[in-house]
């Protein structure tokens, strides 16, 4: 933690609870009052306790005993870690490391040293001499890329933020506050008179000729049908999808403009899209439909129309208002209520 370049002291300026990942300033009023308008910068590093990538560890321990002369001990350790994807990116490629060590304790006779000491006038060695050696050495041999290949940027999924296509992750959206950029496709008035029925689902039941069920299917589509430029070999790759049924007053033919909206959360803690260069989104069918995407903070005032065609009312029994300009949950899925008309 730094405040305008000055490092803060843990235990004096702040404390950290690592169990819940919470950082608390001990005296924020005094700290920030002495530095008004300054920026408090926090940097951290997180490393998972359990590794996701498959890894293998091999070890060995050996000892060579030389009797009265001592012993030599050898130890070795070799660890390999596989990559998680077939196209490993820089920093997450498959790696390995080899560790080796040797330690020895030797006692060697030194008769020459005894003769030298006895040759010194007035000095008597008093017995045979010996020399004691004790030491250890270790070496580390890392191999950061065992495959020899790495992909700097695959230009497809490096910074991809997957969008959920599960139906329960979406809910009915609010009425657009602005129509900037979509004036030519949205109705002039966005009201309950122009809102269209809308359903969305990622699974459905397919019926046979006799009306019997053939099973529950999901919105998985071959990648070649989504992008005609994809050419694959072997088993066809399939991508999930969300089936959306938009039903304006004109039905399945082109007619007066209608609108409806659904919304989902990109990230419960916020998502920075300032460094994203493009958005890739695939949509199928709907020749006279227009898909409008609104990224950012949107209104939480969901637009709900009941069976009588009104967008506001009073809930029976509890006598509470619901609808536009009331921050509530207009539809209760537990009671079988649905969004839209």
How would you characterize the overall build of this protein?
There is one protein chain. The chain has 341 residues and is mainly beta. The chain has three helices and 19 strands. It has helices spanning 28-33, 111-119, 223-226; strands spanning 2-3, 6-7, 14-17, 22-25, 40-41, 55-65, 70-81, 95-109, 130-143, 171-172, 197-201, 203-207, 213-218, 220-222, 238-240, 243-247, 262-263, 312-314, 321-323. The strands form eight sheets. A four-stranded antiparallel sheet has the order 6-7-8-9, with no helix packed on it. The chain starts with a strand and ends in an 18-residue tail after the last strand. 6% of the residues are buried. The model has no long low-confidence stretch (mean pLDDT 77).
Number of helices: 3
Assign the structural class, choosing from mainly alpha, mainly beta, alpha/beta, alpha+beta, or little secondary structure.
Answer: mainly beta
Average pLDDT reading: 77
Rg over alpha carbons: 36 Å
Question: How many individual β-strands?
Answer: 19
The main β sheet shows up as: 4 strands, antiparallel
Strand content: 25-35%
Please write the string of helix (H) and strand (E) elements.
EEEEHEEEEHEEEEEEHEEEEE
Strand order of the largest sheet: 6-7-8-9
What is the end-to-end distance? 53 Å
Overall shape: it is elongated
Share of helix, binned: under 10%
Parts with pLDDT < 50 across at least 5 consecutive residues: none
